[in-house]
Structure formats: structure tokens, C-alpha cells
Amino acid sequence: MIPSLVVGADGLIGGALLRELRAQGSRVLGTTRRHGGSSRLDLAERPEAFLEDPALQELRRQGPWTAFLAAGITRFAPCTEDPVGTRRINVTNLVVLAKALVSAGAFLVYLSSSAIFSDGPVAPDELTSPSPTSEYGRQKADAERGLLDLEGGVAVVRLTKVVSATGRIGDWMETLRSGGAVEAAEDIRVAPLSLPFTVRCLIAVARAGRPGIYHLSGSAPITYFEFAGRLAASLGADPARVLRGTTGFQASSAPVLDIQDSTRYDFLPTQPVDAVLRDLAGDADL
């Protein structure tokens, strides 16, 4: 198994990557922003010193290795409210770290987002030029450019909405199972991916070791209202207990990605909504 570094192991996807890699028997090191934690790495600060971390030095001695870049500010609001500070984390210092990791022999897997594209009638494919309409999307697009300009192995994986049985979705599941009602927006569309599916595909990209741009997407766009209704049915709850809501926000990312180029790799299929729902049920039972 190829040794791996997970930058951002205290996040949703980073934490799941760390657990799955360990379960598969990989030697893996995860970073944290927390003071006092082992292998601390805060992208709000200059990251070069992390290369001297003893645990990373030991990982590098194992031979070829992979670094998953899963850290950063992943919500739209903070990027809008503090574009300078969040850009330092999501772009400037991330690229500095990536350059150092590539120079140290790592193959990089960068977690990007469909937010680099605007919502439109046609799903963007891997060759479509970025057209972000949000500050978060602009930062992800700029980070992609910086990483793809590096001389070395870099795989950029653009993701649609990743869901898990935590946060808002977890609250919906708990409420529906207890007989309550939930409200879900019908003016926002997503193409959901489950957390386990996403992690499996990211690990497959790392093992393939092929640089380039990859798309990972749910199979079709669906509104949050429609998704919550299908979630209710999958839990044996009455879909009528899902109430129509709105966000009033203009769509700021493409809900679904065309993965025609990526599907030439048999490890990157689309994920149907029914499979997402099955994975959510499994998450909740853990």
C-alpha cells in the first residue's frame, strides 16, 4: 500500500480518507490545525516548515507516496466575507505547500469543486473553462491553475455536493425517523455524492497515479426538496413530512458535472441517488 498524507484530516472528507486508508492497511499521516496536535499544519500560516515534521520525514522514507489536499475554507460565506484571508489559505499557502510536497516526491490529489463553474443548461466537462460566480469558486479555480502549473504529478478532482449522515442531512434523518417534519429548499439543485463513494474514488485516483483533471459527480441534478423526499421514503417516513422551502440565493455552482472523459477510467462512475441514500443509511448505522 502506498503511504499517504492527508492534509486536512480534521475535515469531513479528510477524516473519512484517513479512516479508510488506515482500514486498508496503508501507512497514513493526517494533519490538523489544532495547537498541540501531532503533525499540526495551519494553512493560515506559512506551511514550508511542515516539511521538517518528523512523522512526515518517516513517511517519505517509505518510498513513493501520495498527498491528499483536503484542507481549506470550504463554505461560501467566509470566502465572501473575508476574501483576502480565505484566499491566503485556499490559494496562496496551499500552492506553496503543494510545490514543496511535489518537490519532496509526492503525487498530489487535490479536492476541487463544481463551484468553479456557473449553473447552466449544459453540464461542464473536464475541458470546459472555469466560470466561477462566487469568491469560493474563484479561489478553487485559481488554486487549480497554480497546482496544474507545477512540474510533477498532480490530479485535480472536481466534486459535486458530498453528503453524509451528519450536519443538515443528519438532522433531517433524525427528525424524519422521530416523526417530525423538515423543510428543504426547492430552488437549489445538487448532484449528491455519498462520503464513502467519494473516498473510494479519491483513493482510486491516487492509486492510478495519473496526473490531470477528473470529474466526480452524482448522476443527475435534484433539488434539496426532491432529495429530502426520497430520503424520507428510504427511511420509511412519509415524504409529505418534507416541506417546501427556498433559500432565495442565486445558484453559484454547476449542480452536475459531465464526467465523460473521466469515465474512461472504470474506477470513476457516476453515483445514482439511490446509491447515495443507501450509503447514508449505512453511515447512520455506524
Describe the secondary-structure layout.
Elements: E1 4-7, H1 12-23, E2 28-30, H2 54-60, E3 65-69, H3 76-81, H4 83-103, E4 106-113, H5 135-148, E5 154-159, E6 162-163, H6 167-177, E7 182-185, E8 189-190, E9 193-194, H7 195-208, E10 212-216, E11 222-223, H8 224-234, E12 242-245, H9 273-285
Parallel strand pairs: 1-2, 1-3, 3-4, 4-5, 5-10, 6-9, 7-12
Antiparallel strand pairs: 8-11
Helix pairs in contact: 1-7, 4-5, 8-9
Describe the structure.
Helix content is 38%, strand content 16%. With 286 residues, it is α/β, with parallel strands linked by helices. The chain has one domain (4-163, 192-218, 253-271): 3-Layer(aba) Sandwich (Rossmann fold). The strands form four sheets. The protein has a six-stranded parallel beta sheet, sandwiched between helices. It has a two-stranded parallel sheet with strand order 6-9. Helix 1 (12-23) packs across helix 7 and helix 8 packs across helix 9 (273-285).
